[in-house]
Design goal:
The longest helix is centred in the N-terminal third of the chain and has 12 residues. The strands form two sheets. Strands 1, 2, 4, 7 and 9 form a five-stranded antiparallel β-sheet that branches. The chain has a four-stranded antiparallel β-sheet with strand order 3-8-5-6, with no helix packed on it. The chain has about 150 residues and is mainly beta. Helices cover about 10% and strands about 45% of the residues. The protein is built from one helix and nine strands, in the order αβββββββββ. The protein has a single domain, classed as Jelly Rolls (Sandwich), CATH 2.60.120. It is globular. A hairpin with a 6-residue loop joins strand 5 and strand 6.
């Protein structure tokens, strides 16, 4: 197994010509406001919401982090990121997230959750998200952080 991981790391860092590969990072959606996801009834996923349209994913990307902002609602969440056309999404990542109120008046900063391994999303693939929560109908705002330039 270590040989496979070593080879994957080497392929990600060294280009086909033997030089250091060029990587760049970005965020979807590019709007600062992010994408709002709303849970269904308690412990039930809400509907999928588009994070980025397929036409905007012009090269293969690897999702490395998910940013979550819950405002000041104390509840437990499961955030799911998926790919696919509208009404045909397939969940690819499910992340548990527990939000506890710090103060009644304070806002809680966003949380940036790293993935244990980057998730490859091919070019021209729509990315969407949905959430479930223990309270029901709670909203969160998400961004996905991605890297380009890795080899498939």
């Amino acid at each position: 197994m270590s040989d496979i991981l070593t080879r994957a790391l080497f392929n990600s860092l060294i280009s086909g010509t033997g030089g250091i590969a060029v990587h760049s990072y970005g965020i979807y959606p590019t709007a600062a406001a992010g994408t709002t996801l709303t849970g269904g009834a308690a412990d039930t996923y809400g509907v999928w919401a588009q994070i980025i349209a397929a036409a905007s994913v012009t090269a293969d990307i690897w999702i490395t982090h998910i940013e979550i902002n819950t405002g000041n609602t104390a509840t437990n969440y499961i955030v799911q990121i998926g790919t696919g056309a509208s009404a045909s999404e397939t969940g690819r990542i499910a992340l548990p997230y527990m939000r506890q109120a710090v103060t009644a008046a304070g806002n809680v900063p966003s949380v940036l959750i790293p993935l244990p391994f980057p998730l490859r999303v091919p070019a021209s693939t729509r990315i969407a998200g949905r959430v479930q929560d223990t309270a029901g109908s709670s909203t969160i705002v998400v961004h996905v952080v991605y890297c380009t330039g890795l080899l498939a």
